[in-house]
């Protein structure tokens, strides 16, 4: 993905549009003890002391794949590289790494002059100010110093990353952590340990199917709870690589990881039986349509949802309306998504679930006033990259709750751009946080008919 194409759109606008709601109290729904039992059988880490000599000779390639050219030469020569890229900073060491979780410092001893790097291991580098207090920085000390003794010695390399930031919002969970984790670690072929700063157990649990299929080992919690522990690894990647919003670039490092590979990986991790939408709509079954309901969020909800559902049913869809309760169980929910030929939602994080739709399915985004660009950029473009059909239904002023609030002649209605130009905070407060939609069912019907025809259900 490229940077925002829209002229005059600032970085802070981009990220702020992303931050939709704050952590749903996910863990509250789980019996933590029971779940911990799930992890109890994973290979354990070995307690130890003293020094670790072994370098990661057996895993040279996975490190080298993360960079090219001069940097790769530097890695071969010195064993380490600091990578400063567009979306993230990361540090790669093929030499022994000691991570003191208490001070959040990574030590790599060598005879070279001591160098220090400090960064947040979270791939929203472009939006540093926004994640400032949400991601604990890591300091790297490389060179001539006295590293602390090891409390734990590991035989496999580590990928160290944060599960803080905007985790709690599904868009960010997948965009900021899960896809970058896949990009950074897939080619280690599960012989890699994940060390998580700003650790949230519920997050690791929620994405256990994905994480279990990227690493053979128990996730290591590097948050405050484990103060005073020094973990030693034969090599490490600190920080995650990102290729841009909800996307993967096959040509970029480490190479070969495209959106289609990521979707294959999801298919295997979640054990999806169906790949292509054609397998769903064979025979006389009505195609399933998932309507992402934002009821309970009080913004960007469909005020006449019942009427909309009725129209969809009349057209021949079997409509499944998502509820908050349904979404709490990730595994079950993504299987529901996979059973659908069409997913419909008003602009918002729920549309991230398009990742789980079968190939050839249709995403329909309802675009409220003022949010055309964000809609296209965050969900429309990515949908096309996923092998999905993508349709938009742009609402008209009559369909926005803002019309009642401001009247037809107010610039909020007539010229959203002018409001945006006055600053993002106010723009967001109006268009993102205060806008519901009352859909013109007759007009929307045409979009649904188009979806039907894309599915080959109309002659
Ligand atoms: C943890 O870090 C704090 C502050 O840097 C330090 O005072 C304390 O001694 C450290 N604790 C351990 C067990 O190393
Ligand atoms: C993908 O990566 C390559 C190599 O880094 C780069 O030249 C290209 O511009 C990237 N494509 C996109 C769409 O970002
Ligand atoms: C448990 C699980 O989902 N394993 C899968 C992980 O990924 C590999 C390679 O894609 C699959 O073959 C496994 O079935």
From TrEMBL:
<dbReference type="InterPro" id="IPR007657">
    <property type="entry name" value="Glycosyltransferase_61"/>
</dbReference>
<dbReference type="Pfam" id="PF04577">
    <property type="entry name" value="Glyco_transf_61"/>
</dbReference>
<dbReference type="InterPro" id="IPR049625">
    <property type="entry name" value="Glyco_transf_61_cat"/>
</dbReference>
<keyword id="KW-0328">Glycosyltransferase</keyword>
<keyword id="KW-0812">Transmembrane</keyword>
<keyword id="KW-0472">Membrane</keyword>
<feature type="transmembrane region" description="Helical">
    <location>
        <begin position="12"/>
        <end position="30"/>
    </location>
</feature>
<keyword id="KW-1133">Transmembrane helix</keyword>
<keyword id="KW-0808">Transferase</keyword>
<keyword id="KW-0325">Glycoprotein</keyword>
<protein>
    <submittedName>
        <fullName>OLC1v1022685C1</fullName>
    </submittedName>
</protein>
<dbReference type="GO" id="GO:0016763">
    <property type="term" value="F:pentosyltransferase activity"/>
</dbReference>
<feature type="domain" description="Glycosyltransferase 61 catalytic">
    <location>
        <begin position="172"/>
        <end position="363"/>
    </location>
</feature>
<dbReference type="GO" id="GO:0000139">
    <property type="term" value="C:Golgi membrane"/>
</dbReference>
């Amino acid at each position: 993905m490229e940077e925002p194409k829209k002229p005059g759109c600032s970085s802070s606008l981009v990220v702020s549009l992303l931050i939709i709601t704050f952590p749903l109290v996910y863990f509250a729904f789980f019996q933590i003890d029971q779940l911990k039992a799930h992890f109890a059988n994973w290979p354990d880490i070995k307690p130890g002391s003293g020094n670790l000599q072994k370098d990661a000779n057996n895993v040279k390639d996975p490190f080298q794949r993360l960079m090219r050219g001069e940097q790769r030469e530097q890695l071969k020569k010195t064993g380490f590289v600091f990578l400063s890229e567009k979306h993230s900073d990361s540090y790669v060491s093929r030499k022994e790494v000691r991570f003191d979780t208490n001070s959040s410092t990574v030590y790599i001893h060598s005879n070279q002059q001591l160098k220090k790097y400090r960064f947040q291991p979270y791939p929203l580098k472009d939006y540093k100010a926004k994640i400032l207090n949400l991601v604990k920085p890591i300091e790297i000390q490389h060179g001539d110093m006295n590293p602390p003794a090891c409390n734990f010695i590991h035989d496999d390399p580590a990928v160290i990353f944060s599960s803080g930031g905007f985790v709690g919002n599904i868009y960010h969970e997948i965009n900021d952590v899960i896809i970058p984790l896949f990009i950074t670690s897939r080619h280690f072929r599960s012989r890699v340990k994940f060390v998580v700063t700003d650790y949230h157990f519920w997050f690791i649990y929620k994405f256990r199917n994905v994480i279990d299929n990227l690493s053979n080992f128990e996730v290591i919690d590097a948050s405050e709870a484990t103060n005073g522990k020094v973990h030693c690894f034969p090599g490490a990647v600190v920080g995650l690589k990102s290729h841009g919003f909800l996307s993967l670039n096959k040509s970029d490092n480490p190479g070969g990881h495209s959106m289609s590979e990521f979707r294959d990986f999801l298919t295997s991790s979640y054990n999806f039986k169906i790949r292509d939408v054609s397998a769903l709509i064979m025979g006389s079954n009505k195609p399933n349509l998932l309507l992402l309901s934002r009821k309970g969020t009080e913004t960007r909800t469909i005020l006449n949802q019942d009427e909309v559902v009725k129209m969809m049913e009349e057209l021949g869809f079997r409509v499944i309306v998502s509820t908050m309760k349904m979404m709490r169980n990730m595994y079950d929910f993504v299987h529901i998504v996979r059973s659908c030929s069409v997913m419909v939602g008003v602009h918002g994080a729920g549309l991230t679930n398009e990742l789980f739709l079968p190939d050839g399915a249709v995403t329909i985004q309802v675009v409220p006033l003022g949010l055309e660009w964000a809609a296209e950029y965050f969900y429309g473009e990515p949908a096309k990259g996923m092998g999905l059909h993508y349709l938009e239904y742009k609402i008209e002023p009559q369909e926005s709750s803002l019309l009642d609030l401001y009247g037809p002649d107010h610039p909020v209605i007539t010229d959203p751009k002018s409001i945006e130009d006055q600053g993002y905070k106010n723009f967001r407060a109006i268009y993102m946080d205060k806008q519901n939609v009352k859909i013109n069912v007759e007009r929307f019907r045409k979009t649904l008919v188009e979806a039907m025809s894309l599915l080959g259900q109309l002659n």
